[in-house]
């Protein structure tokens, strides 16, 4: 990495004015937060890929910090909860795909035109007609069914990611998870899915997705976790080349993308081509761990219940070089979240406010592989599953600007959202629901694993409030998100990070002390998973 010397300058620029503004020194000033990130996102952590040597080092650092802070181990082996994975990697030289039209094969260039998704257990060979299914969503709650009247038996569905505006953001995100996505297609007899990413919501440009297409995918070992049985083919198709799919159908991709950008309904129609795909996979077993620590509460009854604070510790590891840098450090994604947990754990232990409920600090692995560590933890928690009253998840909260506005994911789903609003507003911070429903952020981090097991959950992100700030956040996604430049050499606002930690801590304490445990809202779709 380059230009590290600029870092100290940024700290001075951001920290000094922030301290000058506030009368009392804040409980969190962002300094210890950044110190943790400097360790966790250093090059010698090698990007913390699930199961890697670098991630093990990062885990050892976190365990050392938890011990120092005096937190109790609450995993299966001390602080550790081992998790077993199967990794799948495409052998590209022995794999290929082609469109078949009028008896002629038009080969697709892997990487350029399309990419195999190894998140599903690809069949060695598939040949099937293609049908365009719009967003491919089937949402009975909203009387919306893209699949109605379509014959999908033995066919491969082609869809554009996204959703029509009549489906609320959290619900449309839920229906686009790999497992929920596949259910209606499996029921209709389809054998695979070709996904065209919605150009209006692509966080990572196609070129960077293509660059790392051969990085292994992972899945939790064990049949209880298989969610895409029967899905023989999964391909991502480059939106810039998508007209290859639509040739001869009477439609073109631009017309469809225009509708999808504005969340308008999409048409459905058969395509003139079939697809033929051959995929060869190399698989192996990978072991990794979640880390779990407990801070006991003091109420004789309520101490048996837990408020969970979670953050993923893994990132994507070492990959293809971008500007000569191969280490994907994951400073904001998500050394930043791990650092929040460490700071809050140490702070609450030092100044034990009268916590009634206990707190559980959960550092999950395998998030970047599909929320896998949290999925495992939520299915096999190291405490009584019914004792977890809430999950607050911290993932890539991005303190790039002063903290005046927080996005609360799950704001309207449970009364946790109301508590978050109260706490933030008492600190002079406004809250907003998800402003970019197309990005499906609600299901893209570990809170979703808890939600699927009935635990009310939310996540909060620092939000931009001016057009300039919005552009800055967008540029961050384009250039740094899942890139080697999400590293220690980037401007962050330490005061914003400190204020964020303050809000997280206040929220935790409030939920821990409330005689009532958080409840799903009566109208929340996710209430159906509640067990209490
Ligand atoms: Zn990530």
What are the defining features of this structure?
532 residues, alpha/beta
Can you characterise this structure?
- There is one protein chain.
- By secondary structure, the chain is α/β, with parallel strands linked by helices.
- Helix content is 30%, strand content 24%.
- Strand 3 and strand 4 (104-108) form a beta hairpin.
- Helix 9 packs across helix 14.
- Residues 1-25 have low confidence and may be disordered.
Topology:
Elements: H1 6-21, H2 31-40, H3 53-69, E1 72-73, E2 80-90, E3 96-101, E4 104-108, E5 114-116, E6 125-132, E7 138-139, E8 144-145, E9 156-160, H4 169-175, H5 178-187, E10 192-196, H6 206-211, E11 217-220, E12 233-237, H7 243-246, H8 253-261, E13 269-278, E14 281-295, E15 306-312, E16 317-322, E17 325-328, H9 331-350, E18 358-364, H10 372-379, E19 388-393, E20 405-409, H11 415-426, E21 430-432, H12 447-451, E22 457-462, H13 467-479, H14 494-513
Parallel strand pairs: 6-9, 9-10, 10-12, 15-18, 15-19, 19-22, 20-21
Antiparallel strand pairs: 1-14, 2-11, 2-14, 3-4, 3-13, 5-12, 6-13, 7-8, 14-18, 16-17, 20-22
Helix pairs in contact: 2-9, 3-9, 9-14, 11-14
């Amino acid at each position: 990495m380059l230009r590290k010397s600029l870092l100290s300058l940024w700290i001075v620029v951001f920290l000094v004015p922030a301290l000058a503004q506030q009368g009392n020194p804040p409980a969190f000033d962002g300094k210890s937060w950044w110190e943790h990130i400097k360790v966790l996102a250093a090059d010698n952590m090698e990007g913390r890929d699930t199961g890697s040597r670098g991630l093990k080092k990062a885990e050892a650092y976190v365990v050392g910090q938890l011990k120092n802070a005096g937190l109790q181990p609450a995993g299966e082996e001390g602080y550790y909860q081992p998790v077993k994975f199967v990794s799948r990697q495409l052998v590209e030289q022995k794999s290929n795909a082609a469109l078949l039209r009028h008896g002629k094969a038009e080969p697709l260039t892997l990487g350029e035109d399309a990419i195999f998704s190894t998140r599903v257990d690809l069949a060695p060979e598939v040949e099937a007609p293609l049908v365009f299914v719009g967003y491919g969503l089937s949402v009975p709650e909203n009387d919306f069914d893209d699949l109605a009247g379509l014959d999908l038996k033995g066919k491969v569905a082609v869809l554009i990611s996204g959703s029509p505006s009549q489906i609320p953001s959290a619900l449309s995100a839920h229906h686009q998870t790999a497992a929920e996505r596949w259910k209606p297609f499996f029921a209709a007899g389809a054998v695979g899915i070709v996904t065209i990413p919605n150009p209006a919501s692509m966080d990572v440009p196609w070129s960077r997705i293509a660059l790392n297409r051969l990085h292994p995918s992972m899945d939790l070992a064990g049949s209880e976790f298989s969610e895409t049985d029967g899905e023989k083919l999964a391909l991502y198709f480059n939106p810039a080349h998508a007209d290859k799919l639509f040739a001869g159908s009477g439609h073109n991709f631009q017309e469809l993308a225009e509708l999808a950008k504005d969340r308008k309904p999409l048409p459905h129609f058969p395509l003139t081509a079939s697809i033929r795909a051959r995929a060869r996979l190399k698989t192996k077993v990978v072991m990794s761990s979640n880390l779990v620590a407990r801070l006991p509460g003091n109420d004789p009854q309520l101490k048996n219940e837990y408020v969970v604070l979670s953050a993923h510790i893994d990132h994507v590891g070492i990959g293809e070089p971008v500007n000569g840098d191969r280490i994907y450090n994951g400073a904001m994604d998500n050394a930043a979240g791990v650092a929040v947990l460490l700071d809050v754990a140490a702070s609450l232990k030092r100044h034990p406010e009268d916590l009634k409920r206990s707190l559980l600090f959960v550092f999950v692995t395998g998030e970047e592989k599909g929320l896998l560590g949290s999925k495992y933890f939520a299915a096999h928690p190291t405490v009584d599953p019914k004792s977890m009253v809430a999950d607050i998840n911290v993932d890539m909260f991005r303190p790039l600007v002063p903290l005046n506005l927080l996005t609360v994911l799950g704001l309207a789903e449970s009364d946790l959202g109301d508590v978050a609003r109260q706490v933030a507003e008492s600190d002079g911070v406004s809250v907003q629901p998800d402003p970019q429903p197309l990005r499906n952020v609600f299901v893209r981090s570990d809170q979703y694993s808890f939600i699927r097991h009935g635990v009310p959950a939310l996540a909060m992100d620092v939000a931009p409030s001016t057009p300039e700030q919005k552009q800055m956040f967008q540029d961050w996604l384009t250039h740094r998100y899942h890139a080697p430049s999400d590293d220690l050499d980037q401007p962050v606002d330490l005061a914003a990070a400190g204020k964020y930690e303050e809000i997280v801590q206040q929220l935790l304490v409030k939920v821990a002390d409330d005689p009532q445990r958080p409840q799903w809202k009566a109208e929340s779709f996710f209430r159906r998973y509640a067990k209490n």
